[in-house]
Specification:
By secondary structure, the chain is α+β, with helices and mostly antiparallel strands. It is built from ten helices and 20 strands.
Length: 385
C-alpha cells in the first residue's frame, strides 16, 4: 500500500468510519503519525457500544493465551495513554466471590490458570476480604478471588479526549453522516483498493479506510466488498443516582458466577454506580435490561445481593448492541480482499482501546505488520465463497 500513497510530502488521508472509543483512539494515533484523518459516524460519537459498555479493563477469563496476552498488554498501556490525554483511570482491581463449595473450587481453578499466565490473581478468605473491603457484606460466602491489576474508565471521556486531540492535529469529525458506500478502484498493480468513501451525497477521496463501526461492521464491510465474520449481542447498563464511596480498595465487584442473578458493579468518580446483569451464558444471550421491567428487576436483584446497594435509585438505563467477532477474538488488520481497507472490531473494545489504536496507526501509516496482532488477522477466516 505504501508504494502508492504519501509521496512527495503529501499527508496520508485516512477515513475512519466509526467514532466510538476504538475508532476515536485509532484516529488520534493516526494523527500522531502525521496522517490527515476524517472521522465519520452515522450518529453522534460514542452513542453506540461505547456508551453502554461496562468498561472493565481486564484480561480475566480471556482465551486462548494470545488473546489474554493482547488484553494484558493493553492494560499495561492504559496509564500512559490516559496521561497523554489528560483523563483518569480508576484502578484498584476486581473482586468476585463464590457462594457454594463448587463455586469456590471453580474460583480456585480459574485463579491457578491465570497465575500460570502471570496474571495477578489470588484467592481470599472472609477475613482477607474484610481487610480489603471492611464494608462488604454477603448473603453467602465460601471464597473470593482478587485481581489487583484491573480498573475501569469513563468511556465517553476517553472518546471525547481522543477526538479533541485528533482535531487539534487537523482531523475532521463528521457526525450524523452515514457512509453510503466505498468506491473501489485498482492500484497500479491491478489490485482492488478503496479510492473514496461516499458520505451522504459527498464523495471523499482517501488513501486508506479504517472500518471501526462496532455492531454495524457487517453492513460496512459489505459496502467495501470484504467479509468480517461478526454478530452482535444486546448490552444494557444501569446508572444510579450518586452514592457515597462504596469501596475502600477495589474498583469492580462481581457476584457469584455459579448462580443467578449475575450482578456486576463499579462506581464512577461522580458517585454514580453502574450495574450490569447478564445470564450465565451472556456471550450469546446478552445482558438483561431490554425492558423497563427487567431494569427494575436488576435493581431489585442488586439490592438483594449487595446490602450496600439497598438505597439505590436508578437514574438512567443504557441499551445498545455489543459487537462480537465470530470466534470471539479481535479482528484487526488490512482486509485480504481490498488492500487499503483496514478493519478493527472486537469484544473487550474498551480494554483494547490503547493497544489497537496505537498498533493500527503504525500498520496503516507505515505499512508494518505488528507481530502481536498476527493471530487476529481478517484472513484467518479464509476467502469469501
Amino acid at each position: 500500500m505504501n508504494q502508492d500513497i504519501g509521496k512527495g510530502g503529501r499527508k496520508l488521508h485516512v477515513v475512519v468510519v466509526g467514532a466510538g472509543i476504538l475508532g476515536a483512539s485509532i484516529a488520534y494515533h493516526l494523527t500522531l503519525h502525521g496522517a490527515q484523518v476524517t472521522i465519520v459516524d452515522a450518529g453522534q460519537p460514542g452513542e453506540g457500544a461505547t456508551r453502554v459498555a461496562f468498561a472493565w479493563l481486564n484480561a480475566y477469563g480471556k482465551t486462548p493465551f494470545s488473546y489474554h496476552d493482547l488484553n494484558r498488554r493493553s492494560i499495561d498501556m492504559w496509564a500512559g495513554f490516559a496521561r497523554r490525554l489528560g483523563i483518569d483511570v480508576t484502578w484498584g482491581g476486581e473482586l468476585r466471590w463464590a457462594a457454594t463449595d463448587a463455586g469456590a473450587a471453580a474460583l480456585a481453578e480459574q485463579a491457578e490458570a491465570l497465575q500460570a499466565w502471570g496474571y495477578p490473581t489470588r484467592i481470599l478468605d472472609a477475613d482477607q476480604v474484610g481487610q480489603l473491603e471492611p464494608d462488604l457484606r454477603f448473603d453467602a460466602f465460601t471464597a473470593a478471588s482478587y485481581t489487583y491489576s484491573d480498573g475501569h474508565v469513563d468511556t465517553a471521556a476517553v472518546m471525547r479526549a481522543c477526538l479533541a486531540a485528533a482535531c487539534e492535529r487537523g482531523a475532521v469529525v463528521r457526525a450524523g453522516s452515514a457512509v453510503t458506500g466505498v468506491e473501489i478502484g485498482r492500484s497500479r498493480a491491478g489490485l482492488p483498493r478503496a479510492e473514496a468513501v461516499r458520505i451522504g451525497d459527498d464523495v471523499v477521496s482517501c488513501d486508506a479506510v479504517a472500518l471501526v463501526g462496532g455492531a454495524d461492521m457487517p453492513a460496512l464491510a459489505e459496502m467495501a466488498g470484504i467479509q468480517v465474520p461478526h454478530y452482535h449481542t444486546f448490552g444494557a447498563t444501569l446508572l444510579t443516582q450518586p452514592l457515597p464511596p462504596l469501596f475502600k480498595t477495589i474498583a469492580l465487584l462481581h457476584s457469584p458466577r455459579e448462580r443467578q442473578p449475575l450482578i456486576n458493579v463499579r462506581q464512577l468518580p461522580n458517585g454514580a454506580v453502574m450495574i450490569q446483569s447478564g445470564s450465565l451464558d451472556n456471550t450469546q444471550e446478552g445482558d438483561r435490561g431490554a425492558t423497563d421491567a427487567e431494569a427494575a428487576q436488576i435493581a431489585a436483584d442488586a439490592r438483594a445481593v449487595l446490602p450496600m446497594l439497598r438505597d439505590i435509585e436508578i437514574a438512567e438505563v443504557r441499551r445498545g448492541r455489543r459487537p462480537i467477532p465470530q470466534d470471539g477474538r479481535s479482528i484487526v488488520g488490512f482486509a485480504p480482499e481490498v488492500a487499503n481497507v483496514y478493519v478493527a472490531t472486537t469484544h473487550s473494545g474498551v480494554t483494547l482501546t490503547p493497544l489497537i489504536g496505537a498498533f493500527a496507526a503504525i500498520e496503516i501509516v507505515h505499512g508494518a505488520r505488528v507481530e502481536v496482532l498476527a493471530p487476529f488477522r481478517p484472513e484467518r477466516f479464509g476467502s469469501p465463497v
